[in-house]
Each structure stands twice: as structure tokens, then as C-alpha cells.
Design goal:
binds uridine-5'-diphosphate-4-deoxy-4-fluoro-alpha-D-galactose; Rossmann fold; 15 strands; seven-stranded parallel sheet; binds nicotinamide-adenine-dinucleotide; 40% helix; alpha/beta; two-stranded parallel ribbon; 332 residues; 19% strand
């Protein structure tokens, strides 16, 4: 298929472009480079031998977005583009709603205008909010107890997509709810390279390992979990990327929703000790206070994706750490 990947120079988008090209699809990328660099295209080309056509466009600009759709004949869109920093979204809610919700509406309008009928959307486990549950399944209520504007944008876009696909004839939408993506392409050329100060665990660990941040603060060791730290369902970014190929190749009319996770939680302490074991280096770590809004533990029930898409994770946290270290070696 000829696929437009929005946000395709970003972390998950670029890894998905690699897997799409490897599976024989034709890829074009639309990105405004607000949180990524054009260099991603070189890396995708280095790994796959194919350089995707690139459109430097902001989805907030409807006219420019429409021009891209009018100049090409896309069969499907995978929509990654969005702002994703939870803390920043609390400080700048309007920017988040305008960029994420506004951008998604412009994208859907351009798709409607040009008759593109297949959409895959990057959602997040955050839409499940805080329900006191540990394992999340797709049929559970969403949109209750969401604590930040970023999470609300995901919940709102999911609803907009459901309404849109109901109103459009022959439209297929697949909403993928990611758990905690980590890791890097096994080639060592492509990985996560966030601009500025990262918030997520693995990018912080990477910066501490490289000496760019003096120490890692563990946000709380007094949770009611076995070792006191939070537990998350970490998923290797290549497994996550392959989930999009499975979704793309199994689309049907209407809206489908799938969790993409491993179903197995790993604690923050476990991640750190695996990182230390694999890298052979001790990380400077201190125990800090709990971070506002963090849930003690949650993971995916990944059964639906397995049953309907034939997809399940093949890699684990150790693979993700090994691939991250391999990527870091190539950076320095
Ligand atoms: P990323 O920041 O690396 O990639 C997002 C890309 O979108 C960037 O390249 C950025 O420049 C681009 N972008 C942002 N706003 C845009 C706009 N208005 N027009 C055009 N391009 C724009 O983030 P990522 O980690 O690769 O995440 C991809 C998607 O997956 C996001 O929608 C994110 O919310 C979602 N997601 C990520 C995680 C995670 O932990 N990384 C978890 C759940 C969901
Ligand atoms: N953590 C630390 N120290 C750090 C960074 C993180 O101890 O410096 C801990 C957090 O407290 C948490 C765990 O590591 O217990 C994972 O934190 P992340 O920020 O990596 O991930 P979250 O689970 O908080 O957030 C992720 C995605 C969000 C999404 C959310 C819910 O990054 O986009 O899951 O699905 F909204």
C-alpha cells in the first residue's frame, strides 16, 4: 500500500517506516520537525535502502496538508504526529489541544476531501485513566480520571475518529493504544533522540548513562508493589512498529481498537538493574518523591491483538536495553 505516515521522522514513526518498507509498502512522511530531525530520513534509508518522500508540513495548516493529499494517491494514513509531553501539556493546554486535536481534524478533513479511507491512530494507555484496574482491556471504559491535557487529546481524538468513521461510507479506522515503548532498531542506527530534557524513564536512563544528567531520580519506592517501585508494560519499539503493519493489513469498515503491549509488567528497579547488568556499569540513582499522576502499576491485556491481528510481542525488556545500548554506542 502507499501509506502517508504523519510524525514519521519521530521516534515510533521512524521505526514504523522501517518496518513498513521492509514489508513492501511505499512510505511518504509528513512532519513539521517540531520534535524530530530530517536526519531520520537518512537513517531509514541506511537501514532499508529506501528514502521515503518527505513533506515538511504542519498539520495545523489545513491548506498545506490538503496539498499533500491532492498531489499523491494515498491508500492509508498512519497518524503519529502530535505533542506528547505530559507535564508540558499541563502548562500549555491550548497548544496541545490545537496541535493534537486540531491537527487530527485537519488530517481527517483532507482524507475526506481526497477519498482516503484507511486510518491508523497512535493512542495511549493513558485513555484508560485511573480505574483501579491493573490489566487494561479494550472494552473497558475510557476517558474517566485522565489527569492531563495530553491524555485528554488522545481520548478526544479517539471519539472524533469513531464519529467520523460512522459518518463516512467505507471508512476503516484502527486505534492502537500503546503501553510504554522503549528500545531502538537492532541496526543501532535508529533510536529515541528526544529534544530537551526527557520525562520518560528510558530516555532519562540513557542521558544518565552518557553523563548528560548527573543522576536518575526514582519517583517513589513506597508503592504497594513487590519492590516498592512502579511497574509498567514496556514494549520494544520494533514490536510496536510491527503492530502497525499487522493493523494495516487487517483493516475492516468501522472503528477497531487494540492494545499494543506485552501483557507483562516490569518494575522501575528491575529496568535499572537490567540496564546495569547489560551495560556493566552502575548508574547513579537516588530515591525521590512520587511523581504526581503516576499509577502504581498497569499493563495491557494483549489478547485481542493476538486473536484478530495475529500480532504479539517477540522481544523483551532485555532486548530493548541491549538495542538501546547498541544505538548509544553509535551516537558517540
Ligand atoms: P515523537 O515526538 O518522537 O514523534 C511525533 C512527531 O510528530 C515528531 O516528529 C513531531 O515533529 C511531529 N509533529 C508534532 N506535531 C506536529 C504537527 N502539528 N504537524 C506535523 N508534525 C507534527 O513522539 P513518539 O514517541 O514517536 O510518539 C508518536 C505518537 O505516539 C504520538 O502521537 C504520541 O502521543 C503517541 N504515543 C507515544 C508514546 C510514547 O511513550 N512514546 C506512548 C503512547 C502514545
Ligand atoms: N520514572 C522514574 N524516574 C524518571 C522517569 C520515570 O522513576 O526520571 C518512573 C515513573 O515514575 C514511572 C515509570 O518510571 O513509574 C515510567 O514512567 P514514564 O514517564 O516512562 O512512563 P509513564 O508510564 O508515566 O507514561 C507513559 C507514556 C505516556 C502515557 C502513559 C500512560 O509516556 O505517554 O504511559 O499510558 F500517557
Amino acid at each position: 500500500m502507499k501509506v502517508l505516515v504523519t510524525g514519521g521522522t519521530g521516534y515510533i514513526g521512524s521505526h514504523t517506516c522501517v518496518e513498513l518498507i521492509k514489508s513492501g509498502h511505499t512510505v511518504e512522511i509528513l512532519d513539521n520537525l517540531s520534535n524530530s530531525k530530517e536526519e531520520s530520513l537518512d537513517k531509514i534509508e541506511k537501514i532499508t535502502g529506501t528514502r521515503p518522500k518527505f513533506h515538511k508540513v504542519d498539520l495545523k495548516d489545513y491548506e498545506k496538508t490538503l496539498e499533500v493529499f491532492e498531489s499523491e494517491n494515498f491508500e492509508a494514513v498512519i497518524h503519529f504526529a502530535g505533542l506528547k509531553a505530559v507535564g508540558e501539556s499541563v502548562e500549555k493546554p491550548l497548544e496541545y489541544y490545537e496541535n493534537n486535536v486540531g491537527g487530527a481534524i485537519n488530517l481527517l478533513r483532507a482524507m475526506r476531501e481526497t477519498g482516503v479511507k484507511k486510518l491508523i491512530f497512535s493512542s495511549s494507555a493513558t485513555v484508560y485513566g485511573d480505574q483501579g484496574a491493573k490489566a487494561y482491556s479494550e472494552e473497558m471504559t475510557t476517558g474517566v480520571g485522565i489527569t492531563n491535557p495530553y491524555g485528554w487529546t488522545k481520548s478526544m481524538i479517539e471519539q472524533i475518529i469513531r464519529d467520523f468513521s460512522r459518518a463516512q461510507k467505507d471508512f476503516s479506522a484502527t486505534i492502537l493504544r500503546y503501553f510504554n515503548p522503549i528500545g531502538a532498531d537492532k541496526s543501532g542506527f535508529l533510536g529515541e533522540d528526544p529534544n530537551g530534557i526527557p520525562n520518560n524513564l528510558m530516555p532519562v536512563v540513557m542521558k544518565v548513562y552518557r553523563g548528560e544528567i548527573p543522576e536518575l531520580t526514582i519517583f517513589g519506592d513506597d508503592y504497594e508493589t513487590e519492590d516498592g517501585s512502579c511497574r509498567r508494560d514496556f514494549i520494544h519499539v520494533t514490536d510496536l512498529a510491527k503492530g502497525h503493519i499487522a493493523a494495516l493489513e487487517n483493516m475492516e469498515n468501522g472503528t477497531k481498537v487494540y492494545n499494543l503491549g506485552s501483557g507483562k509488567p516490569t518494575s522501575v528497579f528491575e529496568v535499572i538493574s537490567l540496564f546495569e547488568k547489560i551495560s556493566g556499569e552502575k548508574l547513579p540513582v537516588r530515591i525521590g518523591k512520587r511523581r504526581a499522576g503516576d499509577l502504581s502499576e498497569f499493563w495491557a491485556n494483549p489478547e485481542l491483538a493476538k486473536k484478530e491481528l495475529g500480532w504479539e510481542t517477540e522481544l523483551d525488556v532485555e532486548d530493548a536495553i541491549r538495542d538501546t545500548l547498541n544505538y548509544l554506542k553509535n551516537l558517540s
